Each structure stands twice: as C-alpha cells, then as structure tokens.
From TrEMBL:
InterPro entries: Tscrpt_reg_HTH_GntR, WH-like_DNA-bd_sf, WH_DNA-bd_sf. The keyword DNA-binding applies. Keywords: DNA-binding, Transcription, Transcription regulation. SMART domains: HTH_GNTR. Residues 9-77 form the HTH gntR-type domain. One of its GO terms (molecular function) is DNA binding. The lineage of its organism: Bacteria, Bacillati, Bacillota, Bacilli, Bacillales. This is GntR family transcriptional regulator.
Length: 106
C-alpha cells in the first residue's frame, strides 16, 4: 500500500484506488476484512471523514460491504468488478483520446 498522496486527484479517490490495488494484488480476498477507517486516518494522518468517503465509494460500487459493528469486508466478485471498471476507464481515457488524435491528422 502506498503511503503518500499526490495532488492529481482527491485523497478519498486515492484511498479507494489503494484498496482496489490491494484487492487486485491479492492482499485482500473475498470476505476479508479491510483495515478500519480509523486505522486509515491514523496511518495516513488524514481526516477520518476523508477515509469514510473513500471507503464509501467502494461500498456504493459493490466492491466492499459493511458488517454492522464489525467493519468493512471485500465483496464477492470484487476483483472482477474492479477489473471491469478499470477496463472501461482505460478505454475512456486512453483509447478514445488516441482515436480522437488519430482522426485529427486527416
């Protein structure tokens, strides 16, 4: 897990991507508990609300789920969901831009 943030995007988005990376890299498996929001805030010295927002993003996408009173866990199929999401983002950000640039050479 990376330990510093850059200014290219909001911290809460970087937190959600860090967790996604950990899932893709096998650090977390389906039904594994991730570190708590308080641990995130303490480890990275950020506002707890920022950690909540980043993790909440993953809950809304079905990548994590909450067990009341116990914490956040990796949802079934999370790895496939993340790969699909990233495939779409790659297409939108890179392939379409490349096609636009190629078309402007005509």
């Amino acid at each position: 897990m990376k330990t510093n943030f850059d200014s290219s995007q909001p911290i809460f988005q970087q937190i959600s991507e860090m967790i996604e990376d950990d899932i893709l890299n096998g650090m977390y498996q389906e039904d594994d508990q991730i570190i708590s929001m308080a641990q995130f805030a303490s480890t990275f010295q950020i506002n707890p609300a920022t950690a909540v927002k980043g993790i909440g993003l993953l809950v809304s996408e079905g990548i994590l789920y909450k067990k009341r009173g116990l914490g956040m866990y990796v949802a079934k199929g999370a790895k496939q969901t993340i790969m699909g999401k990233r495939r779409i983002r790659l297409y939108d950000e890179m392939v379409l831009k490349l096609l636009e640039e190629a078309g402007s050479w005509e």
